[in-house]
Amino acid sequence: MSVFLVHGFRWARNDIRVHVVLQEVDDAAPNNLMYGDSEEAMNENFRDLYPEPMANLPPLRFIEPLNPNNEKFKYPSEPYAFIADVVVQSEDYIDVTQAMNQGQIPAAQWDAMADLRDVLAEGEKIGWFVVHNGDRELAKQERLKKEEHGVRCTDNEEDAFEEKEAIESKYSKELSEQVARLQVPSKFNGKGDVSEVSPRIDKKSGKFKKLFRGDSR
């Protein structure tokens, strides 16, 4: 399990999924922004949408808090990821005091992160976080290794993988249907400026609702 010390803020998973769909960020994996070309794709998208704050930031990292033993969440991802401008990674431990002293944040960079936070995750705290990441794909990789060596998985292992894939497929379809029903207002520009509209999940109905800047409902 990897340990990350990150400076940044949390970004809710539902907002990540909506952003990726509306912005058509095809190379980003909304359920896990650490895989494939997701980070590069998201940085490119942010530079297009938010050029002013991004000009004062290094390439951003998107860090996922993944616990492969956590049975609390039904779907194969945690409810948020971290957007970070400073990341320290270790496989065992991190000297937090030393890392934070070495990672002093310039004022312009901190302000840029605050501007980005206000657009993407208004109300979230900007600070230092310790994030643990246990790769959820490890079991699948082990399965492929077994098959390469002619060792078949047990029936229980096969059933677990099939159930996981069915859940991902079902949830992806439900998300697409909900996003398709979003009523995008006229002031929502062609580039999909999420500073103007920020869909959220209504806790009672489970459906998307739109919150505009300054709308406290």
Write a concise keyword list for the protein shown above.
217 residues; alpha+beta; four-stranded antiparallel β-sheet; two-stranded antiparallel ribbon; 7 helices; 39% helix; globular; disordered C terminus
Overview of this structure, please?
There is one protein chain. A four-stranded antiparallel beta sheet has the order 2-3-1-4. The protein has a two-stranded antiparallel ribbon with strand order 5-6. The chain has helices spanning 13-23, 38-49, 51-54, 96-102, 107-120, 138-148, 155-180, and strands at residues 2-12, 61-63, 80-90, 127-133, 198-201, 208-211. With 217 residues, it is of the alpha+beta class. 39% of the residues lie in helices and 18% in strands.
Concise account of the structure shown:
With 217 residues, the protein is an alpha+beta fold. 39% of the residues lie in helices and 18% in strands.
Beta fraction:
15-25%
| Count of individual helical segments | 7
What is the string of helix and strand elements?
Answer: EHHHEEHHEHHEE
Task: Give the strand tally.
Answer: 6
Distance between the termini: 40 Å
Poorly predicted runs: 183-217
The largest pleated sheet is described as: 4 strands, antiparallel
The averaged pLDDT comes out at 74
What structural class do the secondary elements suggest?
Answer: alpha+beta
How many whole angstroms does the radius of gyration measure?
19 Å
**Strand line-up of the largest beta sheet:** 2-3-1-4
Shape: globular
Helix content: 25-40%
